[in-house]
Amino acid sequence: MWYLGGKIRLSKYIVPIIKYYIKSENSLFIDLFCGGCNIIDKIDNTNNKIANDNNKYLISMWNNIDKVDLSEIKITKEHYDEVRNNKDYYEDWYVGFIGFHFSYGGKFFGGFARSRYEDHIERSCTKTIKQYEYLKNVYFSHQDYKYYSNVKDAVIYCDSPYDNCTQKSTKYLSSFDHREFWEWVRKMSKYNTVLISEKIAPDDFEVIWEKSHNSNMSYIKSDKTSEKLFKYKRS
Fold first, then answer.
1. Superfamily of domain covering 11-232
2. Strands of 138-141's sheet, edge to edge?
């Protein structure tokens, strides 16, 4: 699924690192800010997986993807605006499906994808439906990340809202506390392996992987950004 800030292009680098820390098929893996699920759909060395996100429309969409019938969906800006302005009139899963798949760059109701042809949007929708085949053994969770504060012996991947960047969640856009998040990661790292995708991190975190790549939202190929994977330096 195309998702603003998602790791669909970088998953081939990040997934092997995550899988290295997963020790058995019963190990718990949590994709704490799962978004488009472009990481967890490739984690195949454990059957104990949780995909969590605080966007209720997104999680409802993943939980009800089998209800999607593309022949009954109007791929028009008028319908896009209708759903965006009247979310309470539609089921949450449908709002999520329209809000992400019909928006430019996969940003939830971030503007209708005017530059996309109707068949392109349809292909994007079809791709997500097919992607779900790799997510059937995943438990989808709609919780704040701190809900999992008591977890132990897990591998936790955090593609959290980036500091000083366009946020990926309508809720986190105004409320995400980065200092609180890093302190939470420090505490969780005592009993778990926590891996964080970010551009910057506090000094007591180390970079275990880094790659320069083109920004998802850039029209200019030379517009580079550096993606990093951090891990807490245990004392």
1. Vaccinia Virus protein VP39 (3.40.50.150)
2. 138-141, 48-52, 28-31, 154-158, 193-198, 224-232, 205-214
